[in-house]
Amino acid sequence: LDVKGNPCEDHCILQHSNRICVIALADAHPVLQKGKAIERISYQISANCSRLQNKVSGKSKRGAQFLTELAPLCRIYCSDGEEYTIYSCIRGRLIEVNESLLGDPSILQQKPFTDGYVAVVLPKFEESKTITQGLLTRKEYEEVLSKRFNSAS
């Protein structure tokens, strides 16, 4: 919720039973909520860091970039000049980024929880239970959205 204190810039973390976490935009994120036109998505985080250079190999995921909770994954540039940074929100190894968003960023809005995911992160085994406990269920998130909507009215 409200990642880095930015109101309504919610991120969604879908965790599989094998610990792998898929990072996506949550329902209330302005890109989805306001139907903004996305110009492009960039995984170039800084002059020296591109998430596209993440090369993972083997069972132990050698070469994967290690991410902290506040590590930026990508930036979304909208046609209205707005820019949104999507963060990892969890500690772990970056397994992959969704390169198909580079060619067709609209997938992010059309299928945010399937083909429009941002990245896949694998948390450390010993931290995966803590991560799960810190996440909201779908029902809890809908309650937060309901309270947000009612207080805005």
Describe this structure in words.
With 153 residues, the protein is of the alpha+beta class. It has a single domain, classed as Beta Barrel (OB fold (Dihydrolipoamide Acetyltransferase, E2P)), CATH 2.40.50.100. It contains five helices and ten strands, in the order ββαβββββββααβαα. Strand 7 and strand 8 form a beta hairpin. The model has no long low-confidence stretch (mean pLDDT 88).
**Uncertain stretches:** none
What percent strand? 25-35%
- Evaluate the radius of gyration: 15 Å
Give me the strand/helix succession. Answer: EEHEEEEEEEHHEHH
- Tell me, briefly, the overall form: globular
Give the helix/strand class.
Answer: alpha+beta
- CATH class, anyone? Mainly Beta
Mean of residue pLDDT? 88
In short:
With 153 residues, this protein is α+β, with helices and mostly antiparallel strands. It has helices at residues 30-33, 100-103, 107-110, 125-134, 138-152; strands spanning 11-15, 21-25, 38-42, 44-46, 49-50, 66-67, 72-78, 83-87, 92-97, 119-122.
What does the secondary structure layout of this molecule look like, with pairings?
Elements: E1 11-15, E2 21-25, H1 30-33, E3 38-42, E4 44-46, E5 49-50, E6 66-67, E7 72-78, E8 83-87, E9 92-97, H2 100-103, H3 107-110, E10 119-122, H4 125-134, H5 138-152
Antiparallel strand pairs: 1-2, 2-10, 3-7, 4-5, 6-9, 7-8, 9-10
